[in-house]
Amino acid sequence: MRHVVTMKSTPFEGQAPGTSGLRKKVRVFQQPGYTENFIQAVFDVVKPEAGATLVIGGDGRFHNRTVIQQAIRMAAANGYDRVLVGQGGILSTPAASHVIRKYEASGGLVLSASHNPGGPDEDFGIKYNITNGGPAPETVTGAIHERTKTIDRWLTVEADDIDLDAVGETVVVGMTVSVIDPVADYADLMETLFDFAAIRAMVKSGFTMRFDAMGAVTGPYAHEILERRLGLAAGTVVNGTPLEDFGGHHPDPNLIHAKELYDLMMGADAPDLGAASDGDGDRNLIIGRGRFITPSDSLAMLAANIEVAPAYRGRLAGIARSMPTSAAADRVAEALNVPIFETPTGWKFFGNLLDAGKVTICGEESAGTGSDHVREKDGVWAVLLWLNILAARGVGVDAIAREHWARFGRNYYARHDYEGIDTDRANALMEGLKARLGELPGRGFGPLTVAVADSFSYTDPVDGSISANQGLRILFDDGSRVVFRLSGTGTQGATLRVYLESYVPPSGDLDAETAAMLAHQINAAEEIAGIAEHTGRAAPDVIT
Ligand code: G6P
Ligand code: ZN
Q: What cofactor is this protein dependent on (predicted)?
């Protein structure tokens, strides 16, 4: 019998897991009992069976190691048989997903606040992934939240911290803790998916790239795969050491936070490919020489070319995208005669579709792309698929994009974010708009006429579960649209996201400025929702 210590506790408010787990300021997690309550609520809900294995890893941000030590003791007290933890406490989110699947763990704790900054005054997060390697579905996260409201104790054992930096096994009060190489299993998986020989040959013939790991978790993965296994020059990977504060940067691979990479790619000395990933390694940014590829377009282009990668040849079952993601992928699905699924925002909604074999590739406008190889989006995977496509097609990123638009037409796309606005005012905007949706069809805004206005609701085709209120959609009669949604990942106030999209057929202007192509939709969004009045902002804080 393990000697279990029961610690008395009382509930904390606001432990509802959001889009991607519980995400709060580090100081909130540091309150005595706060983290422990949440982890205990997870264990109380998932009830580990005898012999169960738990995977633990994170993106290396501040507070990661402290929580890992605590979680290991609590796992032992809650009856786990084994814990697998990445060396140094590191596991990228997609690598954690793979490790859960490969070692048939019952689940995993992924410690990350993704692309949010790290450090004592910044963000931390805990997410529970289930045995398929994907984020827990809403039934589970809902039950965890309920449990946090009544929790009155958490369980631990008396044991010293383990050495997270040495690969090997330790026994902690009857439970085996294996510290594993965080990169090897994942890198091996990538070799089974892509044509590494073709990429190596392209590199030998002079192909160059820059991968910006943003001081976050993908550094070790990129060094191993890109530089060691694929032969790209040393120095290809920049900011490649995971730091607790990400070097003070905001590890979000977009044009604002990866501006240096963007500037390089738009300049005379640009390498052939520029790429970046976020804090926990699940997002990606792709920039060719002189050509930024929007995440929505990247999904469409990857899907259209996925057959060049050995593991995907002849088996594209379907494509899925989140609702706010542009419809570029829909046109590819139509041309390839495979189904397209439109899900709410949040990778977890792809899990059932992937498990049921209904889709092979998925993607989101929020810089996430992935496939059925794991159950998370995967930044390094997306970069490798792009490399495989470039190697197989023998042309650059810009040429791939131009060919794609010439065949399918182009979905001009932008997202306007209003960050850190007052929560009540943000809710008032959304509630007000929701109440007026019925009046909008038929009304004109500049040259646009509203065809449909609704609140997006999703019925999961696999388990029939319904997720309502997933964003407000205004569809215009020319096929363009505006979508309004509140972010589910922020930690301060509310963030309003306005997603803008217009479509130009192959015969139209395929090389215009995005802002110009969306001017009518931008005006309509303001007129319909009164953004300036509600937010007090004359312009968005971030445009991606
Ligand atoms: C996380 C999830 C993504 C989702 C994104 C949305 O990154 O993993 O699947 O698309 O959050 O974030 P938002 O801030 O728009 O709710
Ligand atoms: Zn992330």
A: Mg(2+)
